[in-house]
Amino acid sequence: MVDADTATARKLTAPDFQLINPAGAALSRDNFLGGVEAGVIDFISLEPSSPIAVRLSGDSATLRYQTAFDVVAGGTHVTHQAWTTALYERRNGRWQIVWGQTTAIPNDLGLFIESIKPAG
Fold it and tell me: Which of 8, 36, 91, 118 has the fewest CB atoms within 10 Å, measured from its CB?
């Protein structure tokens, strides 16, 4: 993603892929990779920051790990840690990511708690 190599990413991503991003939005493969291609999503850096735990069951594998993000999304520069969970399936002999969910780890827990309180 840092290199915006969406041609390779398409090969590794199932056509029915869905990503739930840290903002809670569901993105299809075309939405996500199209955003990267257009520069709307620009990964400056993206690296696992913990060991990757893997659960394998038949033709499915689930990965969970912490990720360090430095990304510009929709013109907003965000640097944060997150937990990423990804489901891969072996299809036609190839492993492809089918689902991904990234949950941000707040940089400022107090500010985060204030942001999710009901308005009133």
Answer: 118
Buried b (16+ CB within 10 A) or exposed e, 7-17: eebeeebbeeb
**CB contact at 8 A, 101 and 32:** no
Q: Are strands 94-105 and 13-20 parallel, antiparallel or unpaired?
A: parallel
Amino acid making up residue 101: Q
**CA–CA separation, 69 and 50 (whole Å):** 13
pTM comes to 0.85
Q: Which fold has domain 19-116?
A: Nuclear Transport Factor 2; Chain: A, (3.10.450)
The residue count of the chain comes to: 120
Q: Residues 69-90: pLDDT tens digits?
A: 899 998 999 898 999 999 999 9
